[in-house]
Specification:
188 residues, elongated, four-stranded mixed β-sheet, 9 strands, 2 domains, 20% strand
Amino acid sequence: MSNITKRIVKLAISKKSVFTTDELALAWKITNKNVLRVTINRSIKNNFLKKIRRGIYSLDKKEINVFELACKLKKRSYISFETVLSQEGIIFQWQDKIFLASDRTSEIKNKQGKFVYKKIPDKALYNNDGIINKKNYFIATKERALCDKIYKDGISYFDDLSGIDRKKIFRIARLYNKRLERDIKKIL
């Protein structure tokens, strides 16, 4: 078995579906950047790896977890807003985009989907209250996603707020500002 094949097998048995250049270097124990670049290029040439965008790769035959990809496309981000709210049944509208909270507003489109990043305040972004670590990506709880949505877009219509934990949402709302706390009181 060649070195490249051994390295690809190591990736295949991992729980990840998307890898950054730094993660490949760590998994393969390669410290020399030139050796890493050559190894990645050979892996792509031999159809073991697929380049998603600069610095982000997936195994050629492995299905990509779009939530994992979304968090890798932009560092310091987590799944939130309408994506979580629709999963949790708080809004019933179908979403064809994945919405994330981030340190900068941007939108990325590729073969895997549309990813919308919305800026939230740093003091909220860097606080883990209401964020679940799913090993390969981070996702907001329904309370955190509701706070993100109201902070960014103001009060709007929500289909079912019966499952919201009042203590949790008021604790999380304090991370943002007083307006958000007032808005949360109005809708609950």
